Structures are given as C-alpha cells and as structure tokens.
C-alpha cells in the first residue's frame, strides 16, 4: 500500500445522512419497471409442456394410423391369454409358497365385451 491508501484506511467511515438514503430508495423504486402479470395461458404454455403435448399427439397419431385391427380378438387369442394369466398366477403362488387360487370363473382382459356365449367374442 502506498501512503494515500494507508491514510484512507485509517480514516473512520461516515454514514450517509438519513434523508439521502430515503431519496435514493425512492428514486430506485420509481425507476424499477412495473411487474407485468402474464395471462393464464402464457403461464400455462411453457416449452416443456408444449413438448410433452406434442409427443403425446405424435404417439396418438402413430397409434391411430398404424395398420391392423385394434381392440378385437378371436376366442383362441382370449383362451391363450387366459392360459398365460393362469400360469403367471401359479408361478407367483409357487414363489410366495402359497396355494394357487382355485379356478372359479375365467378372467377376461379389462374392458373386453363378451356375448352371452363364451365362444362369441364381440
């Protein structure tokens, strides 16, 4: 440090007058831009949400335009599904060392619609 810096370091710091502080704070508050409240749709439509919605729309478009029938199965497919489900239940029962549940009635995929006769799949 040189002589000037050492002399300044020894001087006590004086605080600014209270009136100056109030004037400075008022001027700073007046110069601050007013807060703009965005409409609800601008707050809701963020880039991440738009990207997620676009991805879901693409998935839906691919699902709807894919070839083949959707949602319909033949009775043989349903029977195969029932066999797989029963085998899974038995495997889980063996893993847990519990007796398998007795087969009371066939289980169908959730949302499937069947006619009165089980051989007709609607």
Task: Walk me through the structure.
The chain has helices at 3-10, 18-31, 40-44, 47-65, 75-95. It is mainly α and 122 residues long. The model has no long low-confidence stretch (mean pLDDT 80).
Q: Determine the structural class based on helices, strands and strand pairing.
A: mainly alpha
Task: Give the beta-strand count.
Answer: 0
Helix content: 40-55%
Q: How many H/I helices?
A: 5
Mean pLDDT: 80
Report low-confidence residues grouped into runs of 5 or more. none
Gyration radius from CA atoms, angstroms: 37 Å
List SSEs in N-to-C order.
HHHHH
Q: N-to-C terminal Cα separation, in Å?
A: 95 Å
Q: What is the subunit arrangement here?
A: single chain
* General form: elongated
Main sheet?
none
Strand content: under 5%
Concise summary:
The protein is an all-alpha fold and 122 residues long.
List keywords for this structure.
122 residues; mainly alpha
Q: Could you outline the blueprint of secondary structure elements for this entry?
A:
Blueprint: H1 3-10, H2 18-31, H3 40-44, H4 47-65, H5 75-95
């Amino acid at each position: 440090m040189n002589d000037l810096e050492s002399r300044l370091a020894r001087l006590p710091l004086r605080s600014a007058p209270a009136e100056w502080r109030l004037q400075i704070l008022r001027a700073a508050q007046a110069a601050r831009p007013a807060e703009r409240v965005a409409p609800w749709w601008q707050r809701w439509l963020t880039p991440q949400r738009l990207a997620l919605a676009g991805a879901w729309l693409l998935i839906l478009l691919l699902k709807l335009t894919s070839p083949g029938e959707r949602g319909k199965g033949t009775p043989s497919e349903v029977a195969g599904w029932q066999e797989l489900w029963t085998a899974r239940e038995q495997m889980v029962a063996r893993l847990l060392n519990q007796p398998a549940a007795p087969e009371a009635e066939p289980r169908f995929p959730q949302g499937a619609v069947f006619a009165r006769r089980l051989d007709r799949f609607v």
